[in-house]
Amino acid sequence: MTATAVAPARRTAARRLSNKVGRVRELGIVVALALVVIPTAIVNPRFIQPQSLRDLLLNASIVALLAVGQTLVVVTRNVDLSVGSVLGLSAFLTAQQFADHPGTPLIAGIGFGVVVGLACGLLNGLLVALGNVPSLVVTLGTLYVFRGIDYALAQGKQVNAANLPDALLNLGSSRVLGIPILVLITIAVIAVAAVYLRSYRSGRELYAIGSNPEAATLAGIPVAKRTLTTFVLSGLVAGLAGALWVARYGTVDAAAGTGLELQVVAAVVVGGVAIFGGSGTVAGAALGALLLGTITSCLVVLQIPAFWQQAISGALLLSAITVDRLLALRLAKALRKTEGTSHA
Amino acid sequence: MRNLLRWETALVFLLIVVALTGQVSTDGSFLSGGNLFYLGLDIGEIALIALPLTLVIVAGEIDLSVASVLGLSSALIGWLWNAGWSLEMILPTVIVVGALCGAFNGLLVTRLGLPSLAVTIGTLALYRGLALVVLGDTAVADFPASYTSFGTTPVPGTNIPYPIVLAAILAVLFGVALHASSFGRSVFAIGANEEGARFSGIRVKRIKLSLFVLAGAVAAIAGIVYTFRFSSARADNGVGLELAVVAAVLLGGVSIFGGKGSLFGVLAGVLLLGGLRNLLILQDTSTEVLTIVTGLLLLVSVLAPSITRRVGTLRKAAS
């Protein structure tokens, strides 16, 4: 008698804890952001002037875009390490397209970059879904293949801002209501992806695949098709990010975006997307990207040598997955306790 | 097992094809003593790191931080040398630091149960970052010639470079450990079925931890070889080398899912990768194409088993 009365109470306690764990992540990032920004602003008040905040958002927006695509992939218990190379290839080809054909309409040129990214993503997706090969190895391979193609096509050349149309460069610098257009595009992509993951059947199925691939197959979810889709979307977003990279920086060579995959994976993990798959949100991943970008800017403002930056981002990634794991262990323990009482 | 044997036969066959093509297309200079010396030097670090990494992957884990440990050990050599330490003191210190880096990876994986992929992507950044912190973007090059001469001279009377001698000794040790000891059987058992291994009394966590420690220590040794071979201690030494090592191990027939593979196959994989790259360099191929070829080899080596399996089931279905 008492057992049945106690069990629901414990169960709600466990549910409350699991909700808290979810919320704690995004709240944690906001707190961490505050902890980073406030001391920096006290040391150097110029850090929170509108112009420097705009720069902060601009710098984070490209990584945030890639993090959105990566979230879709990681949620299904896969990973896409080739995003930096896809961005580089798309950036160079887009820039070359604009430089070689000065009359190219803005949308067509950016669309070209998106198509390049989509093709790369399709190749990744086909290899992973049909070849039945772990995505880590496939995308580690294509990371080098895409970058190699990028270098082979560029042959040491670079495209300068002088050869690019003003419309494109304006896209990188102009603002609407004080907010840079690039940031608005990023927010739009985040919103679309968030709605897709939250409210669409195929979006929810991605979480099911990541939680338990076998069970997802048995439940009739087309796992291979969904996996292919996530890689295509990740490639597409990386292609878009490549085109926007050109708009933002104006000068592009074959090395654009080298090593970016590490920052992206770090942003996604810091943002609370479980590397084991099955949980996480695009908003969290984008906040993760913002936090990492902010820390880099703060290190510059506080005049900490650039050499520390890589070590710090590595340490951040490690602490994020450790905290994540400890929270998951606590949650599992609480859930087990509930189950124990209900069986009794 | 039969599948494995066939894969290794195919590798040896491919090696012979590469050697013969190389010999014919370069008018005999591919297999000349001088070129073999440089080929050996070129694959030295890859061969060294591939040995412990094979054990790590057979046990079902991965270590992507090895190239960063190599860089960190190179940076430490330069920093300690600048600080006036003697090389007799520096070298053991560096190997211990490498082992500690491996132990850190191993503890995060075994004690906290974190996936080794995520952990070693993190430490890939962390260790490379520490290397930059230690040495910045400077290079230290004033090492005594007695330590750096092996980069230009082979073992007297032969064309064998010293790093290959070192790799061969370690290969025998690792070969015995993996294929002829109870430790090695445990490693295979863990990779094939971790839970089953634990229930049969194998100390899974301890063995995995020791594999990560070995990988760190050997990566530090590879860092020493790299530093003295080029007589240059830099923080960015060996950036991206983890790809070549992982590619060589997988090319050698080791399953990325663990539980399958042989050290002989891995050595053949290292030779094949090194031979192909050397041949392409002899023919003035650009480094971009080399990168593409390495990436493609990695893709082919993971796709091949999956394709043969599919062909096998198709054939079974047809008969």
Automatic annotation (TrEMBL), chain A:
Species classification: Bacteria, Bacillati, Actinomycetota, Actinomycetes, Pseudonocardiales
Protease among keywords: no
GO-annotated cellular components: plasma membrane
Membrane topology term: Multi-pass membrane protein
Alphabetical list of InterPro entries matching this protein: ABC_transp_permease
Assigned keywords, A-Z: Cell inner membrane, Cell membrane, Membrane, Transmembrane, Transmembrane helix, Transport
Record keyword Membrane present: yes
Main location: membrane
Subcellular location, record wording: Cell membrane
TM regions (residue ranges): 27-44, 56-75, 81-99, 106-130, 177-197, 228-248, 254-275, 282-302, 308-327
Gene Ontology MF terms in the entry: transmembrane transporter activity
Subunit structure: The complex is composed of two ATP-binding proteins (LsrA), two transmembrane proteins (LsrC and LsrD) and a solute-binding protein (LsrB).
Name of the featured protein: Autoinducer 2 import system permease protein LsrC
Superkingdom, taxonomy of origin: Bacteria
Its biological purpose: Part of the ABC transporter complex LsrABCD involved in autoinducer 2 (AI-2) import. Probably responsible for the translocation of the substrate across the membrane.
From TrEMBL, chain B:
Keywords, in A-Z order: Cell inner membrane, Cell membrane, Membrane, Transmembrane, Transmembrane helix, Transport
Cellular localization per UniProt: Cell membrane
Membrane topology field: Multi-pass membrane protein
Source taxon at top rank: Bacteria
Keyword Transmembrane included in the entry's annotation: yes
A Pfam family it matches: BPD_transp_2
GO CC aspect terms: plasma membrane
Annotated TM spans: 36-57, 64-83, 89-110, 117-140, 160-178, 209-228, 240-257, 264-283, 289-307
Any one GO molecular function term: transmembrane transporter activity
PANTHER family: ABC TRANSPORTER PERMEASE PROTEIN YPHD-RELATED-RELATED, AUTOINDUCER 2 IMPORT SYSTEM PERMEASE PROTEIN LSRD
Protein name: Autoinducer 2 import system permease protein LsrD
Lineage: Bacteria, Bacillati, Actinomycetota, Actinomycetes, Pseudonocardiales
